[in-house]
């Protein structure tokens, strides 16, 4: 194992957070670049931070890599390729390996999880890929952790990776691909605070587990750093143990509508394919939405809602999957970063659609640099 980081899946019940009353400010102030009309209210913000300086580093080395001999297996989470979010980001990493380092498409195989499947289903899926000689095998999602540990023990000569997973005392042929989701979520929280006119901002989580709470925690901190008096309301679609919260757009729509009814005019989701419902609710109410994982403004499966998507928190699963495949091809797994964070562009934010003006970007980049330099520590658990 390369590092220790826990992704427990025990349920931690949460209620809606931070019922502090929002505070309107004069629309003429230059502190709020929300771009609304001259009569629009907005969140009272702190002073704009100093401009960013310095650069982040890339997680890739740029070395020549030949992946033509690899036979890759991908076990997707619920929703599979086409979820316009988490799985699609992983798929993009595989596609990049095909286009950039010579992996042969015919030597790859993709299998996807189903709603409410048993642990035996995960074991069967991974065992099938290993028995067919797939190497490496990438498990997409923390739900595969236990199954991957078991199958990796049965196939010690096969390399495995788990996106978002971690287990103590696991076989050494498993690589854990972890992210600083809270850091990217902080950045889109900054954007939400600057764009909101009602000063009420919403968060929809797919499943109430510590991993998704990292998104919520960073988002809350970003909002509150910029607009301390903002009101944040949140809702989880399902509790721990019920992973359908990542694949139920109608329930995502209901959850988002509930937050919008409480006054939220910007809603951020970390809910996988259920995010399509969040976007639908935002469009129906003519409010703003923030996507997750992939640049959802450019995702064809949510194209009907792109006009309300102001940004997405980029969780670069594509980068991690591509870098992992490249590392296997070069036999250099030790060269992977211990966590894909802002320093290695493992998380970030999108600017597609032209809704992030230069003023807003200046705020975000300044806070990004402070996080990279360690001046701001982003929390991994919600404040309440």
UniProtKB/TrEMBL annotation:
Q: Which domain of life is it from?
A: Bacteria
Query: Subcellular localization, per the record?
Result: Cell membrane
Q: Where is this chain primarily localised?
A: membrane
Q: Note the topology in the membrane.
A: Lipid-anchor
Keyword Cell membrane annotated? yes
What InterPro entries has UniProt attached to this entry? BMP_lipoprotein, Peripla_BP_I, PnrA-like
Among its keywords, does the record have Membrane? yes
Where does the record locate the signal sequence feature? 1-24
**Which PROSITE patterns does the entry mention?**
PROKAR_LIPOPROTEIN
The family database entries (Gene3D superfamilies) matched by this protein are listed as: 3.40.50.2300
Family affiliation: Belongs to the BMP lipoprotein family.
Instruction: Provide the protein name.
Output: Nucleoside-binding protein
Q: Which species does this protein come from?
A: Actinophytocola oryzae
Q: Taxonomically, what lineage is the organism?
A: Bacteria, Bacillati, Actinomycetota, Actinomycetes, Pseudonocardiales
